[in-house]
């Protein structure tokens, strides 16, 4: 158990809908990262937050957004969902904003868009 | 050419074998090199990371980085059935997540 928690474990929704994925980092970690994992693209970095502020952006679509709250938990919002958004979404955390080489991943949320 | 290339396998070995997993990369700016293990339907688990070139050992696992060849390896000695998983390499130019790139993973099966 990495200490990173994610909810929900599974999510099934329809195209065009909006969903929110939630992540709580390890105790003491200030940085949260979001990833998308699909069979064809592998693990893709989406976005990083550090202590409530956006730190880095990866391959995140404009339909996706995230935020980190004062208690350091984070939410990833996915809107106008398409079939291609079906994937595993992982959250990871690290102790600070410069330690991306030592990230701890949560168990993931499996999103299915029908 | 992709920034990080990793043979997807699958790789199947008998228990006790030495396993070699590899990644090549094209970005000479990469300085941090990581290996993750991912069991089916689970999140990736950090095995180890190295900075710049050289070797790092942790139990049965050894990571090697050859920056001159842009080639990194993970060796698993005395492989066990519990090592059966997908192994992901990852790398970044610096400690932050800018340009953090993962390989697509190599699926390993260790047969008892």
Describe this entry's structure for a reader.
The complex is a heterodimer of chains A (114) and B (112). With 114 residues, chain A is an all-beta fold. Helix content of chain A is 0%, strand content 53%. The mean pLDDT of chain A is 94. Chain B is an all-beta fold. Chain B contains no helices and 11 strands. In chain B, strands 2, 4, 5, 9, 10 and 11 form a 6-stranded mixed sheet that branches. In chain B, strands 1-3-8-7-6 form a 5-stranded antiparallel sheet, with no helix packed on it. Classes of the chains: A mainly beta (114), B mainly beta (112).
Can I get a quick summary?
With 114 residues, chain A is an all-beta fold. Chain A has no helices and eleven strands.
Q: What's the overall geometry of chain A? A: globular
- Along the chain, the helix and strand elements of chain B come as EEEEEEEEEEE
- Helix residue percentage of chain B: under 10%
Helix content of chain A: under 10%
Largest sheet of chain A: 7 strands, mixed
Terminal Cα span of chain B: 37 Å
Radius of gyration of chain B: 13 Å
> Overall pLDDT of chain A, averaged?
94
What is the CA-atom radius of gyration of chain A, in angstroms? 13 Å
What is the number of strand segments of chain A?
11
| Unreliable spans of chain B | none
Unreliable stretches covering 5 or more consecutive residues of chain A: none
Instruction: Name the beta content range of chain A.
Output: over 45%
Using DSSP, what is the number of strands of chain B?
11
Quickly give the structural class of chain A. Answer: mainly beta
Number of helices of chain A: 0
């Amino acid at each position: 158990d990495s200490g990173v928690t994610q909810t929900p474990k599974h999510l099934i929704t329809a195209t065009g809908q909006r969903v929110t994925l939630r992540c709580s980092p390890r105790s003491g970690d200030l940085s949260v990262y979001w990833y998308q994992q699909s069979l064809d693209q592998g693990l893709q970095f989406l976005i990083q937050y550090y202590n409530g502020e956006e730190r880095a952006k990866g391959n995140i679509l404009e339909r996706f957004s995230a935020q980190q709250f004062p208690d350091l938990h984070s939410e990833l919002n996915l809107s106008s969902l398409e079939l291609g958004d079906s994937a595993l979404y992982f959250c990871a955390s690290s102790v600070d904003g410069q330690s991306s080489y030592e990230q701890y991943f949560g168990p993931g949320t499996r999103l299915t868009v029908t | 050419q992709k920034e990080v290339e990793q043979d997807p396998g699958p790789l199947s070995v008998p228990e006790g074998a030495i396993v070699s997993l590899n990644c090549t990369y094209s970005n000479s700016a990469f300085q941090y090199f990581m290996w993750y293990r991912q069991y089916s339907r689970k999140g990736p688990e950090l095995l180890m990371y190295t900075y710049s070139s050289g070797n790092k050992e942790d139990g049965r696992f050894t990571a090697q980085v050859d920056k001159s060849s842009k080639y990194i390896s993970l060796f698993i000695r005395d492989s066990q059935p519990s090592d059966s998983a997908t192994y992901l390499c990852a790398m970044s130019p610096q400690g932050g997540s800018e340009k953090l790139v993962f390989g697509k993973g190599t699926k390993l099966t260790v047969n008892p």
